[in-house]
Amino acid sequence: xxxxxxxxxxxxxxxxxxxxxxxxxxxxxxxxxxxxxxxxxxxxxxxxxxxxxxxxxxxxxxxxxxxxxxxxxxxxxxxxxxxxxxxxxxxxxxxxxxxxxxxxxxxxxxxxxxxxxxxxxxxxxxxxxxxxxxxxxxxxxxxxxxxxxxxxxxxxxxxxxxxxxxxxxxxxxxxxxxxxxxxxxxxxxxxxxxxxxxxxxxxxxxxxxxxxxxxxxxxxxxxxxxxxxxxxxxxxxxxxxxxxxxxxxxxxxxxxxxxxxxxxxxxxxxxxxxxxxxxxxxxxxxxxxxxxxxxxxxxxxxxxxxxxxxxxxxxxxxxxxxxxxxxxxxxxxxxxxxxxxxxxxxxxxxxxxxxxxxxxxxxxxxxxxxxxxxxxxxxxxxxxxxxxxxxxxxxxxxxxxxxxxxxxxxxxxxxxxx
Length: 418
What we know:
It is a single chain. The protein is an alpha+beta fold. It is 54% helix and 9% strand. It has 17 helices and 8 strands. It has helices spanning 18-30, 41-52, 73-84, 95-110, 112-120, 126-137, 144-160, 162-165, 170-191, 204-218, 221-230, 232-241, 253-256, 286-317, 349-364, 367-378, 383-392, and strands at 9-12, 34-37, 59-62, 68-71, 333-338, 341-346, 396-400, 403-407. The strands form 3 sheets. It has a 4-stranded mixed sheet, sandwiched between helices. Strands 5-6 form a two-stranded antiparallel sheet. Strand 5 (333-338) and strand 6 form a beta hairpin. Helix 1 (18-30) runs parallel beside helix 3, helix 6 (126-137) crosses helix 7 and helix 9 packs across helix 14. Mean pLDDT is 83; it is low at 256-264 and 408-418.
């Protein structure tokens, strides 16, 4: 990029944030002209909060369109898809697209359990986290003893978030690790034959699942060592999804688009992979179903219980729209299970916002396409419970003023074009 020419977009985030990593992988694939800025503590307080209303990352600033600010990783991807065009991150309509949305709900929300547990539980991580967070939040504080003392408060706050998530006990920690190992094993089987979740090209499913793994489970030293030594195919998939290494099974159209090979006259004769062969060769392969099965068995019951908590909260308020006010961060508590072990956790409405994106897409389908997607969902354990939960969502969750708000159901379809 020529000097003094600003990028089209400014991404405010950090590499140890898994929602930032989700967006970074996507922006690289989309070949978007962007620059990333990691805010220190002062910028968090004086810049991020002032322009976004919350100290939340990532956020995207559209430099070429009068500085419009977009908050939330899902909304950022929606925004770039709308403004930049080109190949869709959603792949093919129908089953392929619903997989992407469901994987987003699973990855953005359920994956917080292993991401937070495996970052904050191992005591051996402390020195790494002090250095990593110190360089990010206080890059000009060279007195490391003073810096480490200052970091105690924010690090304690993030570490304590494991309690409302329900993974603060040793027993629950062990169950989360068992479920994570099962996920890695299923992904390993899939990546023995495929470069990405839906075949030869990345989609939303890849970027959204890669986010928590890259930001926490790959980058942090303890879970990173475990992954790279015991599940190397998972680590390689993360690197492919981040554009760090090439695809292993031939060229992909997305990887050469806009590059030097785009000028080759006989480019169509090159050995391209089949981009979405998982959707074209007899349906979803068993290896991908193994991955999805974890979402249906582990996460769907949690979403159902979460919705019940929200319904009770709105009943107490006497208003299906919460009187037009933003929802609180937590609306109750419920029992949940991971790898067969039960515990109590907080009910976060934001998790239902992610599910509402799947519900909104399902409502746009009709005829044979809707029947195919419905049959696909019903083929999994708790598939009927998932459909029931999506259909029972009384409202669509959107970010109004960067807070989680509710809109009437009659506006649901307006918001469904994701």
